[in-house]
Q: What sequence folds into this?
């Protein structure tokens, strides 16, 4: 599968969060701004925005950014004055009794948000640094400076005018979203939504590492949705997907969730039972792969909704 960041149509994005990492209830706050099936864009710029969200002006802008980056909001081609709310996020964040996670307390929610940031996005991708760190940084350990130099070379290659200061702030915001500073205040330590995933470790002296392994808190439903997403994103016409692609391909579940090969294989072995046979694992003559049976659009949508619900059980 092609590295998404290298596509001719891809537009890198290194700002919008105002240096605030994604906080625990911000996606819910953004969702609560809805009116019907959409969210008026003026909600984030009106004088009443600060009072409505209960935070400062910069944080209001950050909330909007994260809602777009995680795919809670999508641009509405029919109504340029509003954002459309994503159907899957509606099932998660709704206030209805059947909502899956109204208060963002379930571990499935940060895993789903992480997948949208570092895996397959919804709409315009707004988290280039997140995708880069989880897919293009392949060494066991890394530093901010190494990532900055890599991204700087990338922007030069793409003929983009991005300052080193902008890249530095973006990298810092990303890293502190997954591992707050040890000396941070209690609020900053408790708030970042993605910190509970334990994907990045601060080794000290400016060195960071990935925590690879089975990811016990990652629900099967979110993992299975990621496999379907990854397949649709660049391999729609393929009836099979090699294990190595799922483990090591750019934007793959293996890379984005930092799973080792054994734990990834164990997850894939259960696909047939969990997806009703739509996806199934094959290991024959040393060739390991996932196969897919074609289903119509209605059945495909039902499967996605069922997997999402299973993730929250």
A:
């Amino acid at each position: 599968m092609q590295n998404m960041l290298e596509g001719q149509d891809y537009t890198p994005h290194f700002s919008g969060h105002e240096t605030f990492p994604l906080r625990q209830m911000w996606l819910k706050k953004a969702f609560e701004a809805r009116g019907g099936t959409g969210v008026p864009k003026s909600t984030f710029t009106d004088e009443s925005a600060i009072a409505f969200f209960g935070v400062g002006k910069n944080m209001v802008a950050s909330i909007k950014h994260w809602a777009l980056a995680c795919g809670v909001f999508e641009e509405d081609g029919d109504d340029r004055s509003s954002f459309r709310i994503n159907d899957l996020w509606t099932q998660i964040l709704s206030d209805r009794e059947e909502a899956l996670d109204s208060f963002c307390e379930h571990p499935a929610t940060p895993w789903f948000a992480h997948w949208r940031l570092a895996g397959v996005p919804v709409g315009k991708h707004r988290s280039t640094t997140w995708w880069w760190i989880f897919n293009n940084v392949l060494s066991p350990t890394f530093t901010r400076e190494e990532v900055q130099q890599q991204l700087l070379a990338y922007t030069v290659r793409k003929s983009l005018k991005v300052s080193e200061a902008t890249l530095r702030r973006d990298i810092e915001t990303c890293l502190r979203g997954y591992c707050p500073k040890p000396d941070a205040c209690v609020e900053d330590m408790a708030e970042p939504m993605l910190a509970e995933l334990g994907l990045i470790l601060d080794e000290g002296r400016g060195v960071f590492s990935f925590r690879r392994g089975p990811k016990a808190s990652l629900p099967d439903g979110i993992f299975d949705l990621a496999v379907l997403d990854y397949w649709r994103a660049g391999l729609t016409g393929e009836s099979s997907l090699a294990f190595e692609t799922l483990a090591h391909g750019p934007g793959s579940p293996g890379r984005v969730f930092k799973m080792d090969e054994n734990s990834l294989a164990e997850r894939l072995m259960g696909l047939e039972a969990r997806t009703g046979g739509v996806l199934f694992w094959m290991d024959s003559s040393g060739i390991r792969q996932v196969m897919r049976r074609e289903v119509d659009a209605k059945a495909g949508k039902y499967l996605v909704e069922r997997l999402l619900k299973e993730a929250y059980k």
